[in-house]
Structure formats: structure tokens, C-alpha cells
Design a protein that fits this description.
Layout: H1 4-11, H2 18-21, E1 22-29, E2 37-38, H3 40-54, E3 56-66, E4 69-78, E5 81-91, E6 97-105, H4 107-123
Parallel strand pairs: 1-6
Antiparallel strand pairs: 1-2, 3-4, 4-5, 5-6
């Protein structure tokens, strides 16, 4: 499946593998920021210095894939909040992720995620997209 490399990089928390699965012009649609982030460097940083440090007990529970798209269902924790979410992926012709959209529930988890990601991204020097 096209999503195998992405799933393996994320589930293994392999920050070195993350950039390799992203297209150079990847777009990331965050559940907590209105405008998307664009580019391999910034999206890779968000995943490795943000998400990989904020989520604990992260695991994919289901995967739906067809053509150049995949939906990955996940469960995790952010602090003491249980999180359910999906990663929607679109792939380029080389099988790299060209678009990543994350959706999260419930609302209490969205708030916890926004706070925790904000702290980690500020620490990493990542500003919201303008």
C-alpha cells in the first residue's frame, strides 16, 4: 500500500524517515490552524518536533486506501486526554505524501492538542502560517 512508508515512519517514531515520505511541496492542513503549512522542511519539522513529542500511545487502528488517497484512523493520548483522529493522505506520482490533512475529536482533545503543539512548535521556532 502507498501509505506503508508513512505509517512505518510515524508508528516507529523515526524522525529520520519522515522527510523521505513527504513530497518536496507537501501541504499540511492542521486541525488547529486555518491556513495550511507548505513544504517538506516545515511539515517534517511539525511532525517530528511537534506531533511525535505531543502524542503518546499513538497507534493506527484502521486504514482505507484507494488510488492516490488513504485515510488512516488513529488513537492516542495528549496529556491525560484520549484522542481519536484521522490522517487523510494524498500521494504524488512517486508515492510520497503531497497532502496531509489531520482531523481530531473530541473537542477537549482538540484543545489539548492545540496547546501542546503550540508549545512544542514555539520551542522549535515554527510560527503559524501567514
Amino acid at each position: 500500500m502507498k501509505s506503508d512508508a508513512f505509517v512505518n515512519a510515524v508508528e516507529s517514531m523515526n524522525s529520520d524517515a519522515v522527510p523521505d515520505v513527504l513530497a518536496e511541496d507537501v501541504t499540511f492542513n492542521s486541525p488547529v490552524v486555518f491556513k495550511p503549512y507548505a513544504g517538506r522542511d516545515i511539515v517534517g519539522l511539525i511532525l517530528t518536533e511537534g506531533a511525535m513529542k505531543v502524542f503518546s500511545d499513538f497507534r493506527y487502528t484502521d486504514r482505507f486506501e484507494q488510488g492516490d488517497s488513504a485515510v488512516l484512523v488513529f488513537e492516542a493520548r495528549v496529556g491525560d486526554r484520549e484522542v481519536q483522529g484521522i490522517d487523510m493522505l494524498r500521494f504524488d506520482g512517486d508515492g510520497r505524501v503531497r497532502e496531509l490533512t489531520v482531523m481530531v475529536r473530541p473537542m477537549s482533545a482538540v484543545h489539548a492538542l492545540a496547546e501542546a503543539m503550540g508549545r512544542e512548535l514555539e520551542r522549535a521556532g515554527v510560527a503559524p502560517p501567514s
